[in-house]
Amino acid sequence: MIFTRILRCCLVVGLAGLALMPDTASGQKRGGTLVMLVQPEPPTLASYISTSGPIGQVTTKVYEGLLEYDFNLKPIPGLAQSWTVSGEGKTIGFKLHKGIKFSDGKPFTSADVKFSVLEVLKKFHPRGAITFRDVVDIETPDEHTAVFKLANPAPYLMMALSGYESPMLPKHLFEGTDIKNNKQANSPVGTGPYKFVEWQRGQFMRFDRNPDYWKKGRPYLDRIVARFVADSATRTAAIEKGEAHVGGFGAIPYSDVKALARLPQIEATTRGYEMQSPIVQLDFNTKRPPFDNQKVRQAVSYAISRKFVIDNVWFGFGKPATGPINSNFAVAGLYTPSVKSYNVPNGVEVANKLLDEAGLRRGPNGIRAEIVHDITPYGEE
Predict the structure, then answer these.
(1) Which three-class secondary structure state does DSSP give residue 137?
(2) Which of 9, 115, 252, 351 is a Cys-bridge partner for 247, taking CB atoms 3.0 to 4.6 Å apart?
């Protein structure tokens, strides 16, 4: 059984707080502090060796990638100003922006790209071994050119080069060190718009504006503070009172988002999660009973009311899925709705018939079978 939700959480922005609090910024005016709620607290800032969701929320203020992506998931320039694909997809050349520096003042060059990909991401990133498995070498003919040489065409690679997924690291701070225990893990140095300043465990992280950021005039805010508040009711109150301005990725309970969105000073949006486009699904162990029987698997899919789950668990923030790929990927040609639908009005009736046919008769207590359901925990979800 598979169903989708449009986002992992609702993004909530306290507009009144931005406009009225003297230490905040509104629109594109320079200055101010943005307070964002991050839940749960990140276990580390080493986004190059851990993909825990909260890590990317904060490290992308410091680290950047070769590319970024628009709302339609199309690649746009990041640290690379342009790129070309040639040699039947086995050569990808990136031209880097000139004048980019790490926050410690050292220049960012193609040598950093080669080191980041081949020596860190490919070896230590949880998804890097797959993402970069066909990258056999990266040629660096000059400081602003990085040429990826691939054993086989890998078009998927072009969708995994954001600062969130594949951060570019300073070679001069990582080379020759134990990557997993490098001291920069929790004191990151990157090319991004903000510098890491401090981390008070259990309370907050602070990022200050990078005055030497390569995008002239950016960023607009002077500071970003990521707050860690364990109690969900306190997080909701902080947004409502304007003490915090942004809450994403489940930081604000879905039940509270609906109420907050009715307030004139607060906006709720589902935009910004296109790159993740998560699917919520049940995975069956098809090698063990009862799910080694196709009819049992089909029965479960028929029996679950996707609308009930979306309305009562996700409070309306979602839509029924038609398969393991989110419909947001239709723009990339990876999704089709033309598949068998198990979302039918008489689903329970069909499910019971299939279970009877599979030999799973009801016992005296009405139970057909018992299973162990392991869940993947994320924060309070």
Answers:
(1) strand
(2) 252
For the packed helices 347-357 and 294-303, what is the interaxial angle rounded to 10 degrees? 160
- Domains in the chain and their CATH numbers? 2-62+179-269 (3.40.190.10), 67-173 (3.90.76.10), 279-357 (no CATH)
Q: What does each C-alpha distance from 10 to 52, 92, 117, 307, 329 come to in angstroms? A: 18, 36, 33, 18, 20
The answer to whether residue 381 scores a pLDDT higher than 70 is no
pLDDT for residue 6 is more than 60: no
Q: What CA–CA distance (Å, rounded) separates 254 from 194?
A: 30
Which single residue is written with the structure tokens 């009973």?
289
Residue 195 pLDDT grade (very low, low, confident, very high; cuts 50, 70, 90): very high
Per-residue pLDDT averaged across 35-56, rounded?
Answer: 94
DSSP label at residue 99: T
Rounded to a whole number of angstroms, the CA Rg of the chain reads 24
Neighbouring residues of 2: CB distance < 8 A, sequence distance ≥ 6: 279, 280, 281, 282, 301, 321, 322, 323, 324
Round to whole Å and give the CA distance between 3 and 281: 6
> Reduced to 3 states, what is the DSSP secondary structure of residue 17?
helix
